[in-house]
Specification:
Elements: H1 2-8, H2 17-35, E1 40-42, E2 47-49, H3 57-65, H4 73-86, E3 91-95, H5 99-115, E4 120-124, H6 126-132, E5 147-148, H7 154-160, E6 188-191, E7 194-195, H8 206-209, E8 215-216, H9 219-233, E9 237-245, H10 247-255, E10 262-266, H11 275-283, E11 286-294, H12 298-303, H13 310-323, E12 326-333, H14 340-352, E13 359-364, E14 367-368, E15 390-391, H15 401-412, H16 416-423, H17 430-442
Parallel strand pairs: 3-4, 4-5, 6-9, 9-10, 10-11, 11-12, 12-13
Antiparallel strand pairs: 1-2, 7-8, 14-15
Length: 443
């Protein structure tokens, strides 16, 4: 297993997809076996407890009350003790962004509350923000956590320490992180050019439902930051974390390359229908763009207010392929606007463009628990979940999850040209490791 871990940190492995699949499959099996005594289903991408749910506050409190039942207990208890012994602190913050992190994060909180009761515990992150922005939010963690902060936390955290935020933006400091601890062939530099989404109009969008504003950095500041950080960190890859990179930022990157290979999410805009612009992106270091197409049917895209024209998508895919930029395409099935007929048209669109699609991600639509579009849909609630992110619903034309799954498994994935694309997707790490395969293939 040590050899597998070492190989994931070497560039050579990404030139051999079969060896890569063997390495991650073996590591995943090891995690699964190690977690069985704890009644936990553990993988490289998920954490699922057989008896506790991260969307039930009572279960999160139980995880905090019995942290020693967590499979990571021995490691994080020892590491927390080391950190607190090295650096005297008054506050400890936890940023929880995904459901798979929640139960273990609360187990860690339980250790700190039990062994360091004088420390104040602060909770934030994307998942916490989603919970707190729900109309029915009532803080169930008041007896365990001292402060719960939604959204950007810089100013509130400084206020807790009796300070004020002097500037609107602070350049990221990665000094406390060791690149050797990550399963990647070099340092990956994460950077956000904006908070929220510059488009902000898509139906069922959590950003819009939660009222998260669009907060972009000026393109010149993005250029300055990336130039400074690439000189200091010397990353193997820059991961731009935005929900969607704005045209202004893409133009800035094309005009002034950041100095390292990069990738990120983008919307299909007319800029990408310009062959010369795509070539400039490639010359700037763009390795891959993730594109949230969602559907290959224009009526569905219009109903979801995606602001995307399929003819523009076709031109963009062709131009990006010609420029040497890989595409990671996201498709969403089972939305209220979709039907079996429109899903079949998405399959036809994907088949027509398999030569230009590098990777595919297929997702089933989840109805957000709150938001303006949920009204008018026959829906219910998940039993015993007081912190739900989604709710079940009855599809307007009967295109329910069972039918959608059967379509994806029996028809979409069975198409030979589509199946060939799925084979290239890095298992477990998917889009996070895909750029390394693209760079290995291009030499």
């Amino acid at each position: 297993m040590a050899d597998h871990l070492a190989s994931l940190r070497s560039r050579e492995l990404y030139a051999n997809p079969d060896r890569y699949r063997r390495a991650v499959a073996d590591l995943n099996r090891l995690l699964a076996v190690a977690a069985r005594p704890y009644s936990v289903r553990l993988s490289l991408t998920d954490y699922e407890d057989g008896s506790l749910s991260p969307v039930r506050s009572a279960d999160l409190l139980r995880a905090a009350a019995a942290p020693d039942t967590n499979p990571f207990y021995r490691w994080f208890r020892g590491r927390l003790s080391e950190i607190l012994a090295e650096t005297p602190v008054s506050h400890v913050g936890f940023s929880i962004n995904y459901l798979s992190q929640a139960l273990t994060a609360f187990a860690m909180i339980g250790v700190i509350r039990r062994e360091h009761p004088s420390l104040r515990i602060v909770l934030g992150g994307g998942l916490i923000t989603s919970w707190m922005r729900s109309p029915g939010w009532r803080n169930p963690f008041a007896g365990l956590v001292d402060e719960v902060i939604p959204g950007p936390g810089e100013a509130p955290l400084l206020a807790l320490l009796g300070k004020t935020q002097e500037g609107a933006h602070e350049r990221p400091d990665l000094g406390g992180f060791s690149p050797a601890d990550y399963l990647a062939p070099g340092t990956i530099l994460p950077y956000s050019t904006a908070g929220g989404c510059w488009w902000g109009r898509c139906s069922f969008c959590p950003e819009r439902a939660e009222g998260n504003p669009y907060r972009p950095l000026p393109p010149e500041r993005v250029r300055e930051d990336l130039r400074f950080l690439t000189r200091k960190v010397k990353p193997a890859l820059i991961h731009l974390l935005d929900n969607a990179l704005s045209p202004a930022v893409l133009k800035a990157l094309a005009a002034d390359p950041p100095g390292a290979p990069w990738y990120g999410f983008a919307r299909v805009t007319p800029h990408l229908a310009d062959p010369q612009f795509c070539l400039q992106l490639k010359m700037s270091g763009c390795v891959m763009l993730k594109l949230g197409l969602e559907s290959g049917d224009q009526a569905v895209l219009n109903a979801l207010n995606k602001g995307v024209e399929l003819k523009t998508v076709a031109a963009a895919l062709n131009n990006l392929k010609a420029a040497g930029i890989a595409t990671y395409i996201y498709l969403l099935f089972g939305t209220p606007a979709e039907s079996p007929e429109t899903a079949a048209r998405t399959l036809s669109f994907a088949k027509a463009h398999t030569a230009e699609i590098g990777f595919l991600n297929l997702a089933l639509f989840n109805l957000p628990a709150d938001g303006p579009e949920t009204e008018g849909l026959a829906s219910g609630t998940f039993s015993a979940a007081d912190l739900p992110l989604y709710r079940p619903f009855i599809h307007p034309v009967g295109w329910n999850r069972g039918e959608v799954r059967r379509f994806l498994e029996k028809e979409f994935k069975k198409e030979p040209v589509i199946a060939a694309i799925f084979i290239s997707d890095p298992p477990f790490f998917t889009s996070n490791h895909a750029p390394f395969f693209v760079m290995a293939a291009s030499g």
